[in-house]
Write a structure and sequence with these properties.
The protein is of the alpha/beta class. Helix content is about 45%, strand content about 20%.
Amino acid sequence: MIDLEISETGLWTVTINRPEKANSLTEAMLEDLVDIITRATDARGFILTGTGKVFSAGADLDEARAGLATSTVWERLSKAMAALPCLKVAALNGTLAGGANGMVLACDIRLAVPTARFFYPVMKLGYLPQPSDAMRMSALIGPARTKMILAAGQKIEAEEACAWGLVDRLIAPEDLMAQARLLMVDALAAKPEIASGILAMCRG
């Protein structure tokens, strides 16, 4: 359900592959993602994407009710992604919902298809978001817009998300992965210490 491809140039591409369930995430899938990202210390670039028309609907509903919604694995996943020193691009093939926001917010660049929608219905479901999710979202789009998503439960269309800075560029579905790889060209060609040094300066 989590596919990994590693190119000869050091580009790691991770794909959430559970389209029949809107790429909803089980605990096993989340642990697989944490393991892959933790092992990607020598990656020269990292692309995160999904299959089908939804990037991820968040937690698998059955497992969410059984405790996954409040598991620490979400925070471990986003922290592992944030700590990865290479350039990280989220290529969002569709809607992004719930806890799946965390790993995407921890990426450096977010591309999305024009039909994507963005929401994080924690208030409605009776959960708190992961602490780093609220902080990273606020750093990107400001506290008021973050409250619109987290506290007011608003669903944001792709065009508005791009205008806000929640995503960086809208790309046609057939061009999404090509554009994600194109963003990696300089990072893959640069000396690793230069690429990671520039990224560290940009992240503050």
